[in-house]
Amino acid sequence: MTLDPVVGVALAFLPIGLVLSGLWGMGLAFYGVDLSAAWEGLWFDFIPVEGRTTAYLAGVLGLLHLPLALWLAPRTVRAHGAWTRRLLAPSEAARMAERIEHLSVTRSDAVDTQMAEIRRIERDLHDGAQARLVAMGMTLDAAEHLLGSNPEAVRALLIEARESSSKALEELRDLVRGIHPPVLADRGLADAVRALALVSPLTTDVTIDLPGRPEPPVESAVYFAVSEVLANAAKHSGGDRVWLDLRYGHGMLRVGITDDGRGGADITRGTGLRGIERRLATFDGVLAVSSPLNGPTMVTMEIPCALSSPKTTSC
Amino acid sequence: MRVVLAEDHFLLRDGLIRLLGAFGHEVVAAVDNGPDLLTALTTHRPDVAVVDVRLPPTFADEGLRAALAARSRLPALPVLLLSQYVEPLYARELLADGAGAVGYVLKDRVSNGAEFMNTIRCVADGGTVMDPEVVTALLSSKGRDQGVGSLTPREREVLAALAEGRSNAGIAEALFITEKAVAKHIGNIFPKLGLHACDSDNRRVLAVLAYLER
Questions:
Q1: What is the pLDDT of residue A270?
Q2: What is the pTM of this model?
Q3: Using the beta-carbon criterion (under 8 Å), do A315 and B38 form an inter-chain contact?
Q4: Fewest C-beta in 10 Å: which of A178, B42, B125, B180?
Q5: How many CB contacts within 8 angstroms connect chain A with chain B?
Q6: Quick one: a GO biological-process term for this protein (chain B) (predicted)?
Q7: Cβ separation A199–B88 shorter than 8 A
Q8: One domain for residues A53 and A103
Q9: Is A166–B89 a contact, with Cβ atoms under 8 angstroms apart?
Q10: Domain holding A292: CATH number?
Q11: pLDDT tens digit string along A303-315?
Q12: Beta strands A47-49 and A42-44, pairing class
């Protein structure tokens, strides 16, 4: 630390010193011979100034100092920057420790989220489709017993069984939509986001610039994040218009969602935005919310990821 | 009618062939993947095609793509798409050419044979049939629309039935009202949405769906 002013001064003075010494050298071309005689010998850099020739040589060398100083100046500034960063930034070890901390937090979040998901699926199947199928089996069994004696009752039971089967299908569809929406699987993130906009109760302007497809886990996380934010906007913002911008550049997927509602959204309140933040953090993604009172609310997400080239189909 | 069928699941394909046969229709080709479907559609030029959206080889929306490709070569080729899920985005793509003769319904609807045959007949005749789930999704997306907001609950029901592609008689039957009442409701709905009265049932459906997708 005590070295800092010394290094700073040295680095700052180096180009100025070069300019000054260059000017001195050029001066020597004119007064070098006299000065050398007066001071009983004189050196400029590595040139002993003894006569006219060496005095001119000193002048030429001095002239060369000027472009050297120009060349050096930006580099010393950069070197000073690097030096300061070295002093101020955390050490490599500290950075690694921070990274490991972040990774273990996001990993345990990811595992928790996954476990909760699995539990939800299990519960939904148990209370939904499974229960309906059991009921359907019982209805069909009752129908079988009544077949000989009461055909009218059998007809009613069969209708009931068919209704049970369509209810079970409906519940399975909803469940699958919540796990991995078919349109996301079929078409990828861009069309899936367009599909979300299409059924949003708010008028949604969508701009998408996505030249390929991110990895499926990233697609899924971003899809559900967008879905949640749009649902929030419809439920809480009180606005009637949403602008959604999805683009990719410099290894980063960016989503901006802005509504014209009353604002006042707070990431620390409500579990929705928190959940999104945690889900994105698994991919080193971040979520920022700007929501002043009276609006507008602006939600921005950034996820570093790579894109695969656009899929080409055979037909 | 001559039908081309595309369904990769063996049990369902078999069941559909039997069902269509029972109602006196001839399945001229039954295929199980997208590329074969496109060939079958262009060579057989069926009266109607019954197509599963998700087909090999990609198991994505291969059936939809093949159907759209076939319709770009044979405009207004009647196609009824079946799917485990209905997606309003796909409905929009099917409707985009404005030619009609399309249907998009959940596979569940197959379990009601008579109703399913009505759907096929309607599409083959150039009509447009949308699954109630598509219509519900589109209607709920219009929650703050002034036009839809100004409708009475009954008029909303009529609008939904209209969007599904039902005729006046069909709407009357579904809502247990008279055809005259249906005509009166429709006469109220169209001005409220700023739509012009249409001369044919199909144009009417397309106008309503276009409004809902706006």
A1: 67
A2: 0.77
A3: yes
A4: B180
A5: 67
A6: phosphorelay signal transduction system
A7: yes
A8: no
A9: no
A10: 3.30.565.10
A11: 999 998 765 443 3
A12: antiparallel
